[in-house]
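Note to self: user wants both folds in one dump. Writing first protein now.
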Amino acid sequence: MRVWYRPGRTRWENGGVTSTYDVLLGRLSSAFDAISEGTDPVLRTSDRSDYQANGVMALAKSRGENPRDTAQKVMEQLDLAGIAEVEVAGPGFLNLTLTTQFLNDQLRTLISDERLGVAGSTGRTVVIDYSAPNVAKEMHVGHLRSTVIGDALARMYRFRGDTVIARNHVGDWGTPFGMLIEHLLDLGEDEAIASLSIGDLDSFYRGARAKFDADDAFKERSRARVVALQGGDAETRRLWQILVDESVAYFAEVYRALDVTLTPSDVVGESYYNDMLDDVVRDLDALGLLVESGGALCVFPEGFTNRDGEPLPLIVQKRDEGFGYAATDLAAVRDRVSNLHADEILYVVGAPQGQHFEMVLAVARAAGWLPAAVRCEHVAFGNVLGPDRKMFKTRSGETVKLIGLLDEATQRADVALALRPSAMTESERRHLATQIARAAVKYADLSTDRQRDYVFDLDRMIAFEGDTGPYLQYAHARLRSIFRRLEHPWDPSATTFTLNDRAERELALGLVAFPEAVDAALATLQPHRLSGYLFDLAQRFTAFYEACPVLVAPEPQRSERLALCELTSRTLALGLSLLGIEAPEQM
C-alpha cells in the first residue's frame, strides 16, 4: 500500500467538507495531547487495517513505558465512535478500521462536492519560476522536466484557490546576442525572420556561432553590438526584440503542443531585471554585505565553503563590471516579494543548480529582501536518461528536440490506435493519439520522484498496461463506457453505500483518500504522490470491475456500484487534469 501523509497539523476549510485523513488525525492528535505534549501521531495506510497510527513508540520512550501500554492509554482517550474501530497491534501500533457508516457518509459527501473533498485555501500568491528556455535556441528534452513539473504544480495551486503567477525566466540577455544580431543583419531581416518563424532556431544559432568562431571581423562587430545593446541603442534594441518575439512565438507553439498553461505574457526574461541590477549592488554595499574579491564584487553567505574549507563567494558583479546570474536572481527575488507580493516562491530548476539557489536565497534573507514568512524553495529535479542510462540524446549525439519527441510519441500512439478495432474517424483517432502522447510523456515524468533520474522509454510510456498515462486514460474511458450503456437517466444523489463486497470497500477507501494525495503532492512539491495515488485507484477499480458486475447487478446494488464508478471516473479525470493530462471519454 502506498503511504499518504500531510506534514504537521495544517488545516484548510472547504465548505464543511473534511477529509477522512483530517478527521482521523484530528481525533488522534487530541488523544496524544491528552497523554503528553510534543508527540505527533503519524497516520498511514496499512495492509492489516484501513489506517495505522504510529508515534506511540516515541511517546512511550519519553514516558518510560511499554509501548503497548501507552497505546492502550491513547486508545482510551480516542473518540472515534461511529468513525472507526481501533485495536492495539504489534509492538504498539493502533490499527483503525473505518466503519461502513462513516464511509457511506464520506462517499455521499463526495458525490455532491465538485472538488471531491480537496480543500480550498485562503488565496495565497504563489510565484512559480519554470521552463526557462533560451532565446534563439530550440526547446529540447532538457527543458521537459522543468516545464512539466512546474505546470503540474501551477495547476494544483490554482485548483486549491491560490493566485499563481507563472514566471518563464527565459535567457534573453547577455553576450551571445551580439553575434545573433549581427548574424540577423548579415542574413537580412526578412530571411532571418522567415527562418526563425518556422522554429528553425538552432540553425540560426549555429550559423551565428560558426561565424563568430571563424571570422575575427564578425567577432569584433558582435562585441561592439553587445556594448550597444547594453547601452540602450534604439536600433540594436529593435533587432534584439525581433529575436525575442520570434523565439517567444516558437515557445508558445511548443507549450500548446504539450498542453502547458504558459503563455507569452508569462515570459519575464533576464532583460526585465537589467535596470534593477545597479540597485542590487548599491543596496548590498550599503548593508555591508558586499566584499571585493579578485576584482569582483561578492557576498560571502554564512555556511558555504569550498573543498578547502574557504568561504565561498556569490559573485554579484564581475571584474569587467558585468552582471551574472546571481545579480539577476537577487533582483528577481526582490521583485517577486516587493512588487508581486508573493507568499511563496518556487524555482523549478535542475538539481545541479542547488548550491546556487541556496546561496542566492541566503543572501536575499541576509539582506532582508526575503522575509521568513515567505516560503521560497528550489524544486530540484533529476535528469532524463536514454536507454543506456546516459543523458538522453539522438543517435548522432545531438540533443533531442522537445517538439520532435512529442511528434514521435504521437505517431506511435496513432499506430497503436490504428491496430485496434474502432469506429473513430481518422481525425478523431489523430486527436486521441495527441492526447495519449501528451499523457505518456507527462506521466512518465510526473510519476517519478522528481529528484531522481528516469529513463525515457517511449515503448513503455505509450503502453496501455502498467504504470503509464495511457493506462489511466483507458481506465477512465472504460468507466465512461459503462454510463454510455445506461438505458435510462441515473441520479447518484440518493445512493446508500453498504460496501458488502471487499472490492467495493477497497475502491471506496481509495476514493476517500484523494484529498490526502493532493495535499501531500502540494505539501512536499512532489507531483508523483498524486500520480501514484491515481495509479493505485485505477488498480482498485480494475479489481472491482473484475469482481463486481455493475449493469447486471440487482438493485440497490446496481445503483451503489454505478455511484462508485461515477466517483472513480470523476476522481481520475480531476486528478489527471491537475497533472495536465486529458481524460478521454472513449479510447
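First done. Writing the second protein, which came from a different request thread.
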Amino acid sequence: MRTILRKTRSRFAPPPKLTISQWADQYCFLPENNAEPGRWRTSRAPYQKEIMDAICDRRIEKVTVMTSAQVGKTSILNNAIGYYIHQNPKSIIIMHPTLKDAKDWSTFKLAPIVANTPVLRDKVAKPRARDKTNTTLRKEYPGGYLMILGSNSTSEMRGRSAPIILCDEVDAYEITSEGDAINLLWKRANTFKERKLVLTSTPTIKDISRIDQSWENSDKRRYHIPCPHCGKLQWLKWACLKWDKSPDGKHLPETAYYECEHCKQKIYHGDKNKIMSQGKWISENAFKAHAGFHLNELISPWRSWQEVVEDFLEKKAQNDLQVFFNAAMGEPWEEKGEKVDGNNIYLRREYYGPDLPEQAVVLTAGVDVQDDRLECEIVAWGPGEESWSMDYVILRGDPSQNLLWSKLSQVLARSFKHPSGSALGIEGTAIDTGGHYTQEVYRYCRNHPYKVYAIKGNNTPGGPLVSRPSKSNLGKVNLFGVNTVTAKDLIYSRLNLGEPGPGYCHFPVKEMYSIEYFHQLTVEKRVLRYKQGRPYHTYIKPSGERNEALDCRVYALSALYIVNPNMGPLKKKRLKQITRESKEGYTRESRINFK
C-alpha cells in the first residue's frame, strides 16, 4: 500500500526546482535537423550556462545578449521558453523583427524542439485549424501561453500581457507609428511583480544599435578563458588572432592561432574546447539588476579559427567588413561619416538683437510635432539664402487639443521690425505630418491654407529638396514632399562656411540658442550606404539623442523653397525703403535745427 501511495505521489508531484541550464540538460532534446541532434548538453558550450541561468535569476530584471552568429543564441531562448512552459509556468511574449520571421521561427525552430522534448510535447498541443488556442503564433499550456509577434505587428500586442518578454534580433526591429515595439511590450509586463526582459541581437552600427546601447547600460560581462601556457585569463579578441603568409604574400588561414595577450605564446584551435570549459564570466560594470553578455565567433565550438579568418578575407575582398564585425565578432560597426562641430558654431554666435538685420528680406518658420509639445524656429533669409535665426520656441501641451495649436497661431502671427521701417511677418510655415498627430496637422493646415504648409519627409537619393504637392492624403490638403537628405546636405555645408555671405548661417546670443540647441542641430552624421550594389548617402542619429533643432531648420528651409521668393527685387525694395526713411529723417532733423 505504501508503495502504491509513493508511486501516486511521484506521478503528480511538481518537477524539482531547477535552473534553465539544469532543465535543458535534464529534459531538452534537439531535433534531427540540428547540427548536434539528441540530448542537450550545456557542457558543449559552457558559456551558455550563465546566460540561461540569468534569465531565471530573480535578482535580475533585464538580460542583454550581444552576440555574433554561431554561438547558440537561439537555443538559449528556446531553452528559456521550455523552462517557463514546463518547470515554472508563466506566460511569455517573444518578438522577432517581422511577422514572417516570427512564423518561420515558430515552424522551423520551436515546433521541432517541442516535438522532440517529451515534457513539452505533453503540455503544448499541436496547432489545429479549428483550435484558436494553439496556432502558429499562439501556444497555450497549463499555467500560461506563448505569444509570437513581429515588431511590425504591434497591433497584436493590444490586450496582451506577460511577465516574460523575449526580444530577438532587436537591431532589426521596425519603428512603427505606435512607437517603439520593445517599450510597448515592456509596459505590458508592468503589472507583474517578477518580470523579465531579455534582449538579444547581432549589433549593427555604433550609436544607433539598440543592442549595443543596452549592453553599455548593463554590467558588461565577457567570457574569459585561461591561457594554457601562463594560465592568465582573457576574453578572445580579433586583434589577437594571427595567421601566416606564404613567401609570395598569400594568406594561409589554415595556420590561424591565437596569441596570448599576456605571454604572447600561441594557442591553437585544438586547445579551445579544453580551456573553454575552464572559463568564467567577468563583468566590467557594477551589477544593477541588468546582466549583459557579449560573445563572438572566436569562442564558438561550431566555428574553427581557420573558418573565421577565411570569412574575414572574403568580406575584406568584397569591401564589406561591417558584415564581418557585426556577424562574426558581435561588435557594432563604427562609421567615420561626416559631421559638423556644434561647439564651434555655438562659439561664433552674434549680437544682432530682436530686430531684423538690413540684409534680411523674408521670414519662414519650421514646426516639429512631438507627443507633448510643438517646437518652432523662425528664420530670416536674405539674398543667396544667407540666414539669421530669430527665435526658437517650445510650446508645451497636448497636440490633440486646440489650445496648443492656438498658441502656435500666436507665434506665427508675430512680426519683426526691419531697418526700412517695415514690419515683416512670416511668409511661410512648414509643419511635419510624419508623427503621431497627422490628422491634427492636416486640420491646422486646412484652416491656414495660404501660409502654412503640410510636409512629409523622404530620403530619395538625389531628389529635389521640395516636390510638387499632392492632395492624395486623408486630410485632402496640399502635401509637399521634402527630401531630408538634400536639405541636410545643404544645411550642413552651410554650417561649415567660415565667412558671412551667401548661404552663411547667423545665430544670436540668446538663451534659447544654448549649447543644447547646437548639439541637436549637428547631432546627425552623414554616412555612405549601399542599396542593390549602388552607393548613396543618408543621415543617422545616435540612439536616444534629440534632433528637433535640425528638423525645425529643415522645415524652415523647406518653407522658403515652397514660398520661393524673388530675393533680388525684395532686397531693392527694402533698400529703397531704408533710403527714403533716412532722407525723411534728415529733412525732419534739418527743419527742427533751423527752427
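Dump finished. Worth passing along: DSSP finds 18 helices and 25 strands in the chain.
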